[in-house]
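User: What would this chain look like folded?
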Amino acid sequence: MGPPTIDDHTRAAAEAAPSVAALALDERLALARASAEELTAIGPSVVDSAVAEIDQPRRFAERELSTALAFAAALPDLAESLRPARVPAVSGRTDLEWRPFGVALGWHAANAPTWVPALVTLSALIAGNATISRPSARAVRTGSAVVEALARPWPEGAVRVVDLDATEALPLLWHDRVHVVVAHGSTATCRRHVAALGRAYLDGARMRPYIPEASGNDALLVLDGADPDRAAEAAAIGGFANGGQLCMAAKRIIVQRSVWDAFRPRLIAAVAALRVGPADEATTDVVPLRSGRAFEQASAALDEALAAGGVPVVGEGRRDGALVPTVVELPPSALGVRLWAEESFAPLRGLTVVDDADRAVELANASPYGLGAAVFGGGAEVVERLNAARIVVGEGPLYSDPHLVVGGIRDSGLSGARPKIEQLAWARRVHRA
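Assistant: Here's the prediction, encoded as structure tokens.
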């Protein structure tokens, strides 16, 4: 017998889905605690796998594991929204209830092979669904190990892992036994998914929710009144952790002229202090980017930015043929270059200096993306005017709190910052006279 087919995986998940749905919410939460214990037990090997498989810095791989376990610990709080509730009614009574879709497909990206599979798998299970996980082909060993550990306490077949490349796995999106899809990937990937789903719908496929978390080109605003030390640390860690390959990383740094002189030397010191080295060294912050599509795209974007008048503030761009942490100051005339206008999935960041907070907000919003933003200084009106789904004030963009969920608008997503648990159940209202 050969490996399981898509049909095998979907049939097993569909057969297990009723047994997951039949569990009371508190029973699911108890199983999720057991899942977290299983993940904790294999934690060191998961970290080793991420280091070896995708060159993830050990320090960041440990952080990602910790974040996944913190999310598991927060599930009882997040799950409260799924409990039945009485809602207003003109007469009689109306109850709001939540029901699982059935089988949830998680389409995972390579850059977060521990956190994303844990987030999607546990959210889907707590909402009462069976799940199918499709780890990125570049991180299949790590992602599979995470999901298989989480699966152990659950009914047989309730959690499946599909080891297929993107083309082979694509039919899962519209398979009749898949009822909801959660995709983490680039905006280009998510657009291809939506286009493929559209064609399948025209051919008669049943409609299902598609929940994307796509690219980001997040702004970090350093405005009048900012603490320059905290802002510089946020720009360095929030911009370059995991080699800058995070959708929620700070990718566009916007600095008000009144704080530039104080911020500039601190930014230089904070970025220069990042340890660049091999993934397996415990002190490494950033692994140089040497090859692949992200390297090629970022290299071209760097050359374009420099040709347009960009000047490195810190970092030399390339070192020994690899990309290393670099911040390029761009003049106003160069803000159309790819380093500024598109997501840089590399240790390269653009920076520009503006005269006032109004211009800073205008530039932050002048993007097709709407994932997040980080703000230092300024006033409450700045936050009010920013068009992003996840905004942190006085904290770096990687501020970790499982209750502060990630999500996007426009080309970064469809639903804003809503918990995956709530998106993986459908609401019904029952009225009784």
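The first strand starts at residue 85 and ends at 87. If you want, I can go into more detail on any region.
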